């Protein structure tokens, strides 16, 4: 995983995306997330795999544009949720404060 992330970061540097406009990168993320939704609604597993991968790529680049790494963003998020209490309702986790 670490090697793949480094490859994406280098690809981003090679394409000058690391210095690109983060707002445009966020729009690209939304576009790719929409493709994930479309693949789910059509039950197209290969498209879903591609969409998830493309979404992760856009997030790696967005983090890079802000001087962060995917790993540190993921760690930050995990540190926030690891002790979270709540309940899973209809397949969705609802944090305790929202119940």
Architecture overview:
It contains four helices and two strands. The chain is mostly helical and 99 residues long. It has a single domain, classed as Helix Hairpins (Orthogonal Bundle), CATH 1.10.287. Strands 1-2 form a two-stranded antiparallel sheet. Helix 1 crosses helix 3 (45-65) and helix 2 (22-42) runs antiparallel to helix 3 (45-65). The longest helix is centred in the first third of the chain and has 21 residues, at 22-42. The protein is globular. The model has no long low-confidence stretch (mean pLDDT 97).
Key words describing this protein structure:
mainly alpha; Helix Hairpins; two-stranded antiparallel sheet
Secondary-structure blueprint:
Blueprint: H1 2-14, H2 22-42, H3 45-65, H4 70-81, E1 86-89, E2 92-95
Antiparallel strand pairs: 1-2
InterPro entries: MazG-like_dom
Domain NTP pyrophosphohydrolase MazG-like: 29-85
Protein name: MazG-like family protein
- Form type: globular
Domains counted in the coordinates: how many?
1
Spatial strand arrangement across the major sheet = 1-2
Quaternary structure of the protein: single chain
Fold-level CATH name: Helix Hairpins
Q: Separation of termini?
A: 36 Å
What is the helix/strand order? Answer: HHHHEE
The first-level CATH class name: Mainly Alpha
Estimated share of beta-strand residues: 5-15%
Global Rg: 16 Å
- The CATH homologous superfamily is named MazG-like
Name the structural class.
Answer: mainly alpha
CATH-level-2 architecture: Orthogonal Bundle
In total, the number of strands is 2
On the 0 to 100 scale, the average pLDDT is: 97
- The helix count comes to 4
């Amino acid at each position: 995983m670490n090697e793949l992330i480094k490859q994406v970061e280098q690809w981003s540097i090679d394409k000058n995306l690391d210095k690109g406009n983060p707002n445009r990168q966020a729009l690209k993320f939304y576009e790719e997330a929409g493709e994930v939704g479309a693949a789910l609604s059509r039950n197209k597993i290969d498209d879903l795999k591609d969409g998830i991968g493309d979404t992760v790529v856009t997030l790696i680049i967005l983090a890079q544009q802000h001087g962060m790494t995917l790993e540190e963003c993921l760690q930050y998020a995990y540190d926030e949720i690891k002790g979270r209490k709540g309940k899973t309702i209809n397949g969705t986790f609802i944090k305790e404060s929202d119940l």
